[in-house]
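Quiz preparation item.
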């Protein structure tokens, strides 16, 4: 099955958590503490989302409600 996955599908398969944000530029530290990662600043793309390259958290602009 893995040989049939595209790069986009593989990235979607490893996303661990979706976080709704209101700003276009956010900081991610993987949750902090000893299990986190170095703080990185990420800028949402034109589609309103970004995936952290360290922890695969997906950040999406909006509140997560139906009225976004």
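Solution:
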């Amino acid at each position: 099955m893995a040989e049939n996955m595209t790069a986009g599908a593989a990235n979607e398969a490893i996303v661990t958590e979706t976080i709704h944000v209101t700003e276009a530029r956010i900081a991610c530290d993987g949750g902090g503490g000893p299990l986190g990662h170095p703080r990185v600043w990420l800028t949402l793309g034109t589609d309103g989302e970004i995936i952290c390259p360290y922890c695969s958290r997906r950040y999406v602009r909006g509140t997560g409600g139906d009225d976004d």
